[in-house]
Amino acid sequence: MKHLLSIESLSRDEIEAFLQLGLKLKASRGKARQPLPLTGETWALIFGKSSTRTRVSFEVAIRELGGQSLFLGMHDIQLGRGESVEDTALVLSRYIHGVVIRTYAQKEVETFARVGSIPVINALTDDEHPCQILADLLTWGEKLQSAARKKSRGLTDLFRGKTAVFFGDAACNVAQSWIFAAARLNFHLRLAAPRSYQPAPSILARAQHAEVRCFEDAHQAAEGADLLYTDTWISMGKEEEKKERAEVLAPYQINTRIVRAAQPRALVMHCLPAYRGQEISADVFESHASTIFDEAENRLHIQKAILTTLTRSLKSGR
Ligand code: CP
Ligand code: NVA
To answer: How far, in Å, is the centroid of ligand 2 from the Cα of 117?
Structure first.
């Protein structure tokens, strides 16, 4: 695998391999053996949108794997003034060993990957947030494993037959990556959203084997669920729709009523940043904070798994 551009492009085995490596790297943090996989490498982060978790976890991961990171705000480089993605990819491929990109159009990360000669990681576009969903799956798998009180051979086996529910803007990047994850891993995914915030039929068609159902009634969507998940109602780039979104999405808040409809030990997860009182009530957030911050921590372990996998496959020519 040369790039990580989407969840849609991953097989079940590839997802399992990322999760297993993430678990291993989590257990061995601080005890890494030399030579470190990114020794002598410089990776750039090109970010056209704000970030706390993705930026910091990638910068720390690159350093802990022996490499150097270079943060390039999209508007600090010529890309932000109209230089083409193609020329940027060709030039940066002469200097650096890999790139992590956060931008708007999915096409930009795809173009960079096609034209350049270095690994490209999608750190969030308007269409997908693959690194987030891999960390979410790692967290869900760990929690299911500890609830089962036994080690299972594959974390992805644990998701089979389970029900996850995404509440809010079900047409956003995070929701779309969850749809593609459900298509690969055979869990049931419910999307609780008003009709105008449900995914486009073309997205659902691309996940044709997935057990994905849209619900306009949030309570009905939550009934008997194993995992309740939400994301901000106002994704980056949608700030002008703030007022309208807050009104239309209000019935899709994860709150005590919703939690009571789910399984008694259902997990509540949030990719963060969270806006308490909007997509999640403050009391539900606080009661599930330990899972949510484990999920945030897992961003670091999974970023290391992604960087290690891409650099290993480049070196082995696979
Ligand atoms: N969840 C997530 O991607 O957070 P950041 O926007 O802070 O990177
Ligand atoms: N859907 C959100 C995710 C933030 C991590 C956004 O795109 O802003």
So the answer is: 28
